Amino acid sequence: MTFTSPAIEFLRQKDISFSLFVQPDGLTMLDEIARFRGQRVSQIVRSLVFRYSEKKYALVLAQAGRNVNWKSLRAVLRVRRIAMATPEEVFQVTGYVVGAVSPFGLAQNLPVLVDQKILREEVVSTGSGILNVAIIIRVDNLLRALDDYQLVEV
């Protein structure tokens, strides 16, 4: 079966090496998802969208199983208030539904903040733009594929 999404096409156009992993419906627990992918939870990268101004958003790449430190994130963004984007806002700014958000092929140009903890892993999985399909990618290729990003501790 062939899958395509803006994220997958973005990586193909940039000639970035990756693979796709299809998981069955119904997996919801992080440890189950990681085990099914043959990974540890720390290898799953969540793409989280935060609103930090009325119409400003940032994409945070963070390890699954860890909470984002909101105080640190506010300091990085130099704002006093942040909020998680609503599912509608996530779709508007990324082009993806919650649960399938990828850092690649975004609908809008967003600041991308990469938590440094991700760099501890050699290979990670990210959203592909398609529910239940993950992009498996080397961390160095993930960073190479991002047009612009900032390494942060959140």
From TrEMBL:
<feature type="domain" description="YbaK/aminoacyl-tRNA synthetase-associated">
    <location>
        <begin position="28"/>
        <end position="144"/>
    </location>
</feature>
<protein>
    <recommendedName>
        <fullName>YbaK/aminoacyl-tRNA synthetase-associated domain-containing protein</fullName>
    </recommendedName>
</protein>
<dbReference type="InterPro" id="IPR036754">
    <property type="entry name" value="YbaK/aa-tRNA-synt-asso_dom_sf"/>
</dbReference>
<dbReference type="Pfam" id="PF04073">
    <property type="entry name" value="tRNA_edit"/>
</dbReference>
<dbReference type="GO" id="GO:0002161">
    <property type="term" value="F:aminoacyl-tRNA deacylase activity"/>
</dbReference>
<dbReference type="InterPro" id="IPR007214">
    <property type="entry name" value="YbaK/aa-tRNA-synth-assoc-dom"/>
</dbReference>
